[in-house]
Protein: PRONE domain-containing protein
Organism: Eutrema salsugineum
Amino acid sequence: MFDGRNSGNSSFSSRGDGRNTPEHELAVHGMNPASSSHGTRRGKQNRTSDMEVMKERFAKLLLGEDMSGGGEGVTSALALSNAITNLADSMFGEHMKLQPMYPETKEIWRKEMNWLLSVVDHIVQFVPSRQMAKNGTFTEIMVTKQRDDLLMNIPALRKLDSVLLETLDNFKDQKDFWYVPREVEDTEKNGDWRRDENWWLPVVKVPSDGLSEESRRLLQNQKDSVAQVLKAATAINASVLSEMRIPDDYIDSLPKNGKTSLGDFLYKSITEENFDPDYFFSFLDLSTEYKVLDLKNRIEASMVIWKRKMNQKEKDGKSQWGSTVSLEKRELFEVRAETILVMLKQQFPGIPQSSLEISKIKNNKDVGQAILESYSRVIESLASKIMSRVEDVLEADILVQRQMMGEAEVRSESEAESAFSSEYEETEKVAAAETPNSRKLSDFIGWRLSSDTKKHSSMSDIEFFHKVEQEKPMMKSPRALPKKFSYLSKLENMRSPSDRH
Amino acid sequence: MFDGRNSGNSSFSSRGDGRNTPEHELAVHGMNPASSSHGTRRGKQNRTSDMEVMKERFAKLLLGEDMSGGGEGVTSALALSNAITNLADSMFGEHMKLQPMYPETKEIWRKEMNWLLSVVDHIVQFVPSRQMAKNGTFTEIMVTKQRDDLLMNIPALRKLDSVLLETLDNFKDQKDFWYVPREVEDTEKNGDWRRDENWWLPVVKVPSDGLSEESRRLLQNQKDSVAQVLKAATAINASVLSEMRIPDDYIDSLPKNGKTSLGDFLYKSITEENFDPDYFFSFLDLSTEYKVLDLKNRIEASMVIWKRKMNQKEKDGKSQWGSTVSLEKRELFEVRAETILVMLKQQFPGIPQSSLEISKIKNNKDVGQAILESYSRVIESLASKIMSRVEDVLEADILVQRQMMGEAEVRSESEAESAFSSEYEETEKVAAAETPNSRKLSDFIGWRLSSDTKKHSSMSDIEFFHKVEQEKPMMKSPRALPKKFSYLSKLENMRSPSDRH
């Protein structure tokens, strides 16, 4: 599950200073059941080194990742955000199978997240309260309580976190599927294993007569529960990001108008009389992560431009947009753009942060929001990953069933099958496509979106958007590994300590 | 020793959030010898709560004292500086007697300083090193080591710290002097006890036949050792402060020229043909802390102005000073100003930070320098305080001796007495002055400075300055409580968490 380089070692702790203190070895040391009773020599060592590890974590956070001490590092908000991102990456980055986390890894995750999250315990707001004096009269006084957004969302995220770890634990005793290394699998077939887009994942195997009914139920239940987690974490993340101020840097980097940002084709599509998102997507080449991200960046940029222009107009009382575009139309275009973003988010839950999101995370100074955003992001990412692994098993099961019955028989039966099953056949077809890197987004959308769009074809765009917003259907996620962590590589936060003397 | 409000509770932890978590009670809990063996239930609780206290400390440092979490707090550098200042204040602020610190207080001081100082362990620089390959050849590689200034000064400051605490411990078993509350002492005399400038200090009492020779030796030894600590801590503090950049804010606040900053009298005195520091000081009214500080501020400001003008001139190649003042003269004026500052520092080791120093501390972003500056400042302050308490006892002894022998006899013998003893008589005269609030600095300077200036009357100002610099004599410190901590009250760092939702 882990390679040697990264085994349980949180990367945010070991970067930069080059000392390579094996703190986690110390921290993990003595965690076997025999020494779990407190008061033993080993237990004491363990707690002492916990203090040391914690001190080091916080010291580096205070230095803002600037190990020269010169104070040119990042803000506390970004340091904490990066710490949570990196911790999650080192804990879950190489978790490729449906199986419980190693107890040591789980312990480190729980412990270090508690340290990082402890900061929010001290973020407070003043609220009015009444104090009773000895004579029975009340005085209005101000007391502190934890900030509302944290009071509400941190316990929720902790719950989602533990649901995901329990999900993995639930696969502890299952014997109905197992994993083999990709090499073994492909050597048997004598194929070029690197041609598969998931060549770096182990291959899941099911018995030759398929999964037991019990296993299928377990998988489906876990999938439903993870879907709920994914939905909740995504909602929290989106909400926190939307509350963050749009940084001046980002605004300065924008082109003058939405048309320039979108390009002619996108601009024309969005501003045409009729807009059918399904039809719109069918014309887009979204075969690579880069192309999806580029679309998201362009649409977000144009939305910011439009909103600023509308605000400007309201303030100035004169049109900067041109007299040909009415207020109603502009709102319509915005809703269309928003619809595209929602659909992108649903179809590609694992795409990297957009420029706007990176800019917000990088410039955000609010420690509470930084922790909420990063924690919800890593939960979202882990949920999306577990979802993919569950789907892998279900697909392998379908493949085996099909082989058993023969292609023709499966085809004739497929009409009568449950909606759930046909969904996976759809995906299976996609997975079996010969040129996996040139697939269109419409290939991914699957039956649900198609039926939705058919059902709502008489609706206006706005109605459709609100419908989508309310239902937020959990669609089939593409099989790409969530790359949400990867914004870090763009931020280049680590500064080298400079030689001062 | 401590009043109830502040007993061992580090104020930097309990400010602002109003929750009043009794962490120190938890931390101190179980520190009696019976529970000091690890592995007991109480020992475990103790370590667990240590973790909690440490988490809280670091969390608040990360928030930069902005408990709203909005990231509008101070830098890590200033947060750490304030934390060290406040911790020292709560540990030593009310330590008024020559007696060991309470073990609990000492334990908290040691522990919490270790937490705060742990940050410097991670401040590193790259240095070239050679790595031997398997074939025996060497490759030049870069490795990290702790930054030189920290590597050198932090262990030194830790040593000075422990010397001071040992000094206090050395008075553990002495029975030769004791303290009575000021009220009791003054009620006996029926005087107005508030007229004494040290009315808030307990009164030291010695036996009616004076101290034993052993006690005198102990006191003198401790005084010498504390004097060394004071000298070393002062040197480190001055060196760190001098390395800090002069903030733009400070420069912007300066008047146009040194004459405006100094005022006519000071400017004339410093720029006259002949400058005698002793004569100069005799004309100054330095009766209050405010007046001493004002002098320091004016002189520091004019030195910054002059240095900037000289640099500007070197850069531009033209004079901005006016043609009447030569380069040599300007350097002479600077040396005179520097001499005044050195003398002020020696005479008033406990005066509050100057505007320039506050500005530097407030704007400094270097975490390493922040820790060095604040740690050396609190050590300097504690040393100065212990010094005053030792002198109190020695003075009480002289007073008793004088009473025993009768005034006339003491006078006739005083010529033959040792220099050490006469020094204290000198001070005694000052202390006995009827109007303590209108004393001049020259009253404080005592015999050493007088004899020094006589000895060096044939020297130039520059020679005199260097002489003073080299010798750095430890002169009698005025009896005012060191107020070095007090810059905090000016900084107004604590921000109220704003109601966000």
About this structure: The two ends of chain B are 44 Å apart (CA to CA). Residues 43 and 288 of chain B are 50 Å apart (CA to CA). The first strand of chain B starts at residue 124 and ends at 132.
